[in-house]
Amino acid sequence: MDRVCRGYVLDEDGYHDGGHYFASTAENMASFIMHNQNYRTIITDEMDNTIVTSLPGGFLDLFGDQYGQIRDELLREILPMQYGDREPTEIKYLYEQENMEMEW
Questions:
Q1: Which of 20, 48, 53, 88 could form a disulfide bond with 61, CB atoms 3.0-4.6 angstroms apart?
Q2: CA 104, CA 84: separation in Å to the nearest integer?
Q3: Residue 32 lies in a domain
Q4: Is pLDDT at 99 greater than 50 in this prediction?
Q5: How far apart are CA 31 and CA 15, in angstroms?
């Protein structure tokens, strides 16, 4: 199985919804951002270090210090979604219990 990340959707006051666990592929991260494009999002790794943040509109904002190398891969996935050439994929969210049982 792929590594797991956690996606947060922030409301207008900057509070999040508790987060959603999913496989940390570039396609999943791009789809998560685009499914929630009306809000700011934060995607973190399993240690809660920031991978990427996005702004309303689905625009990439900041990459965590150790994740700058995924920028190009994420751009390849998200740009066709932003241009309307491709729909975001459905993400299989993992339940928190499943995530807790995984070996890191």
A1: 53
A2: 36
A3: yes
A4: no
A5: 21
Residue 49 maps to a domain:
yes
101 located within any domain: no
The answer to whether the predicted template modeling score (pTM) of the entire model surpasses 0.85 is yes
Looking at residues 61-72, what average pLDDT do you find? 90
- The highest-confidence range among 2-6, 89-93, 100-104, by mean pLDDT, is 89-93
37 DSSP 8-state letter: T
Q: Report the relative pairing of strands 4-10 and 59-63 from DSSP bridges.
A: unpaired
Which range of residues forms the domain containing residue 20? 4-95
Closest CA to 7 of 82, 40, 61, 88: 40
On whether residue 100 sits in a domain, the answer given is no
Give the phi and the psi of residue 101 in degrees, each rounded to 5: -85, -10
* DSSP per-residue letters across 68-88: GGGHHHHHHHHHHHHTTSSPP
Number of domains in the chain: 1
